Amino acid sequence: MTWSLVAYANTRELAAAVWALVLVVAVFLMPVSRPSVIAAAKSLANWKIIASLGSYAVFLFGIVGCAWQLGLWTPKMLGATLAWFVVSGLVLYINALTRASKTTGFFAGHLRDTVRLAVVFEFILNVHTLDLWAEIILFPALVVLVLLQAVAESKEDTRVVGHIVTCLLALIALALFLATTVNFATKPETFVLADVLREFALPIWLALATVPFAYVAAVLAGYETLMLRLGFFSNRTEIPVRVRLGIISGLRTNLRAIDRFAGKRGREVVDAGTFRGARSEVMVFHSDSAVEDARRAAARQRLKDFAGVTGYDSDGRRLDRREFQATKDALEWLAVCHAGHYRNKNKFPRDLLTVIGSFARQGLGDPHGIVMKVKGDGKAWFAYRRTSSGYHFGMGAVGDPNSLWCYDGERPSTDYPSGKGGWTKHVDETRTEWLRETPI
Fold first, then answer.
1. Which of 101, 146, 189, 312 could form a disulfide with 259 if both were Cys (CB 3.0 to 4.6 A apart)?
2. pLDDT tens digits, residue range 374-422?
3. Shortest CA distance to 208 belongs to which of 110, 289, 74?
4. Full-model pTM
5. Boundaries of domain holding 30
6. Beta strands 404-409; 424-425: pairing state
């Protein structure tokens, strides 16, 4: 049985399949996880999802069939093909539907990753595999090490552990590379050049072939979402066909524009009522978007030009404004969370930074650098952060969580909010550094 399977999958792929089967069985046997699995399965049992993934699978089947006829694929590559579909193909397709419209250069980035040097190195490591028992032991060890590395390097106090794990992974990779090299030198007859070249080309032509399909699927999904949103704006269950055609003729296949359009000109385009009127609204949207994009580009360039530059502009605001808006957004989100906890327990929590964990959505990386203090009775708090330009922003509250105080200055505030020490009410318009930054 093992021999017949090896004809279509190598021992590393078999080991991955064994552990995947073990994981699936374990999940179904655990009473705690069974309801979640059933709920997830029900959510996937949607005809649109089934039709979308089914059409993608059929497309891939057709591509592989064509490759077989052209001599680019053989049945021995079935295991590698299925592994690509599960690991890369599905991820590409799902990300195309959910992220492509919000990520600049999404598809170009995916193609670059396909031919990056790391892929070549990974291919070399997979040319020669170990015995099945060794691969079964190695596979979970590698998974655990990779997860440990990701967790350890995400926090400042555990990054040393992350570096150690990285060294271990490098040693394992080096050992596999040496094993491949030795095996090739001592048993060159075991390597068929045509098969090796096919294995190397497999992920490249699969990616090249599936990107157009994923792009079209992302466009269709984008238009479906857009029409639903336009129906919400107009309180209609159906948008007139002539309006739909006018929108499509203007937006075409621009994923970013399709994603942004409803929030900008949604009500106007539906009220237009005609093909020409809808297309005209789309043209206005394109013009406004060009102006907005130019303003954002100018803001990004300004941040670069004034990075590290001391001084003030004509409005009395600092020139070097790196991380200003991200810092203010993070402190304001912290204040919102504090207010929620205070209403529930009548005191500010001391461990809120740990509970929140990350401020990535506000634009701060890890570690976020926010310092927070809470009074012993839980009736006052303040937090501050030093930006990369060396400037400090602070925010806090005393008693009433909605009565926010803010601070900014060359040095961090070390006292709780009050009418002195540089603190002012958050609504005080004299705090020019707290004004909104130009979006980038």
1. 101
2. 999 999 999 999 999 999 999 999 988 778 999 999 999 888 998 888 8
3. 110
4. 0.72
5. 2-217
6. antiparallel
